[in-house]
Amino acid sequence: MEERRVAHRYKLPLPVIVKRLSLDPKGELRVTTRDVSTSGVYFTSDEPLALGIKLDLSLTLPPEVTQGSAVVIDAQARVMRVDERPSGADDRFGIAAVIDRFNVSRAAVDFALHKAEQVAIDKRPPAAASA
Q: How distant, in Å, are the alpha carbons of 22, 49, 67, 95 from that of 92?
């Protein structure tokens, strides 16, 4: 089978809030990722989702992953595959979704830029003492 992934996958169990972009009255799902990349996400769910359905995803990368502060990512995705009982999990479904677009929280970006500026300032040589 030919590898079709376009981005590196990271095995990260992250909590995700999933909202269906339809008039579905079922509301949101709280799920956990098995792996994520910049182009897709795979998570398990207690219920199957229809192929092609559009989703809003919200997940948080913890400080341990970002080496800074938590980063909130909001993404719009489409369900591409549904696996029944992935890896032998009872009564669960594996959902593979392709990410159409995503946004990183502005606060996280500002924090990272500020931290980088502080590191640059801290590494400057001390000013020559004036006589």
A: 22, 11, 32, 10
For 41, the token pair is 């996400």
Write the CA distances from 71 to 2, 79, 110, integer angstroms. 33, 24, 11
pLDDT at 9: 85
Q: Could you tell me if 101 and 53 are in contact, meaning their C-beta atoms sit under 8 angstroms apart?
A: no
Rounded to an integer, what distance in angstroms lies between the CA atom of residue 97 and that of residue 34? Answer: 12
Kindly report, residue by residue over 8-35, the tens digit of the pLDDT: 888 989 999 999 887 666 778 899 999 9
Domain boundaries, given as residue ranges, for the chain = 15-122
Secondary structure class of 29 (helix, strand, coil): strand
pTM metric for this prediction = 0.71
CATH number for the segment(s) 15-122: 2.30.110.10
